[in-house]
Amino acid sequence: MKTINRKLLSLSMALGLAALTTTALAGKPGFEKCYGIAKAGANDCGGNGHACAGQAPKSGDKGDWVYVPKGTCKKINGGMLKGEKK
Fold first, then answer.
1. Long-range contacts of range 80-86, CB-CB < 8 Å, 24 or more positions apart?
2. 31 and 38 in contact (C-beta within 8 Å)?
3. Whether pLDDT at 73 is above 90
4. What pLDDT is stored for residue 24 in this prediction?
5. 20, pLDDT greater than 80
6. How far apart, in whole angstroms, are the C-alpha atoms of residue 64 and residue 47?
7. Residue 81: in which H helix or E strand, if any?
8. pLDDT per residue as tens digits for the range 22-59
9. How does pLDDT run across 61-71, given as a tens digit for each residue?
């Protein structure tokens, strides 16, 4: 009986983790990642040698990003979408 409970617990934990991971990777609907405009300490997620939001070491770093409404990144001075070079 204990073995079955452990297997069920492990399965439910794995499914829950998979659901969280998928949600985190999907991003925000209606938004895009805009690189090069994050202020120091105000980035939205990991990048450039750090793994968490709010850890951008300097403003305007091309490796750090923030979410902006779709279509606005290119209108912001210094803003780039992933893979673009300026």
1. 80/34, 80/35, 80/36, 81/32, 81/33, 81/34, 81/35, 82/33, 82/35, 84/35, 86/36, 86/62
2. no
3. yes
4. 45
5. no
6. 6
7. none
8. 344 457 899 999 999 999 888 888 776 777 888 888 89
9. 888 899 999 99
Q: DSSP secondary structure string, 8-38?
A: HHHHHHHHHHHHHHHHHHH--TTEEEEET-P
- Look at the block and give the residue holding tokens 């994050």: 38
Distance CA 49, CA 32 (A): 21
Give me the torsion for CA of 27, 31, 36, 42, rounded to 10°.
-70
Token couple for 63: 């490796």
CA dist 8 and 3 (Å) reads 9
Which two tokens mark 10?
A: 């492990």
Tell me the HSE value of 62 on the side-chain side, using a 13 A CA sphere.
7
